[in-house]
Design goal:
Elements: H1 6-13, E1 29-34, E2 39-44, E3 48-50, H2 59-62, E4 71-77, E5 88-98, H3 103-108, E6 121-125, E7 128-139, E8 142-153, E9 156-167, H4 180-194, E10 198-199, E11 210-211, E12 216-217, E13 222-223, E14 229-230, H5 232-247, H6 257-263
Antiparallel strand pairs: 1-2, 1-11, 2-10, 3-4, 4-5, 5-9, 6-7, 7-8, 8-9, 12-13, 13-14
């Protein structure tokens, strides 16, 4: 969990963003691929990916019903505040795995620690059966919401947490509380990522962050996005340049209107 600073919120409020939800082409995406558990999903290319807990958020603070032996495999975070005049503070999609688990123990993970009027339900996403749970925690000047989606496969629990956090509003921060409609828009963007999950064959590439365009590497051949073979040295240069661009990130701008207009179609 991470809070936008109040000064950043004030700065973002000054940025004009005409045509914020203008229709446009589908935004570019990257692919998260877990070669150990053979599962993949796509996420907007301007979102932040991490394989390490505490780097951009804290897994067990947002996913409170996850057992201690649940291993975080990856998390993607919304890079901007889509509602800078609200109390929105962050949105994350976590993927974790609990090995050596039965179907019953997996289903129990969807039950919140505290009593809730919303009981876990079963649902299908991308033809995969999930147990869907909801957890909400209200603390001092903060609200944490977590939608959990859990399925059992090969004797392990595959868990996805869609976490949305916000801080207190009103006189404390000078901004308005995030509305139910705004929450639904953020939740829809997280759910659009969840809808892309698929289980891969065991022979899938071992990369865990592959752009959906550019050079593709197989065992002995390098191909471009059109399937044409490339000289190995050319492909390596292309891949190296792509990685360098991804690594060189400038100062964080809280609200990028162009990126948001594209990612809002997700």
């Amino acid at each position: 969990m991470k809070l936008w600073g109040y000064s950043s919120v004030f700065f973002a409020m000054t940025l004009p963003c005409a045509g914020l939800y203008a229709q446009g082409p589908p935004p570019p995406t990257h692919t998260f691929r877990d070669s150990t558990y053979h599962i993949s999903f796509d996420y907007p290319s301007n979102w932040t990916l991490s394989h390490t807990d505490h780097e951009i958020s804290t897994f067990h603070l947002d996913a409170r019903s996850a057992p201690r032996n649940a291993a975080l495999r990856g998390v993607v975070a919304m890079p901007e505040n889509p509602f800078p005049e609200s109390t929105f503070s962050g949105a994350y999609l976590y993927f974790s795995v609990t090995p050596h688990s039965s179907k019953a123990s997996c289903a129990k993970q969807a039950v919140p620690r505290r009593s809730s009027s919303r009981k876990p339900a079963t649902t299908q996403i991308a033809d995969i059966p999930f147990t869907h749970g909801h957890d909400e925690q209200r603390g001092i000047c903060i609200i944490q919401r977590d939608e959990t989606y859990i399925t059992n496969r090969r004797g392990a629990c595959y868990r996805f947490d869609l976490a949305i956090n916000n801080f207190c509003g009103g006189e404390v921060s000078g901004v308005k509380s995030i509305s139910p409609q705004e929450l639904d828009q953020v939740r829809s963007r997280l759910e659009s990522i969840l809808s892309t999950i698929r289980f891969d064959p065991k022979g899938s590439p071992k990369s865990t962050d592959n752009p959906t365009s550019g050079a593709l590497e197989t065992a002995n051949t390098f191909l471009d996005s059109g399937g044409r073979e490339l000289p190995k040295t050319r492909a390596l240069r292309k891949r190296s340049a792509s990685r360098s661009c991804s690594a060189c990130k400038g100062p964080l701008v809280l609200l990028n209107c162009d990126a948001l207009a594209m990612s809002s179609t997700m």
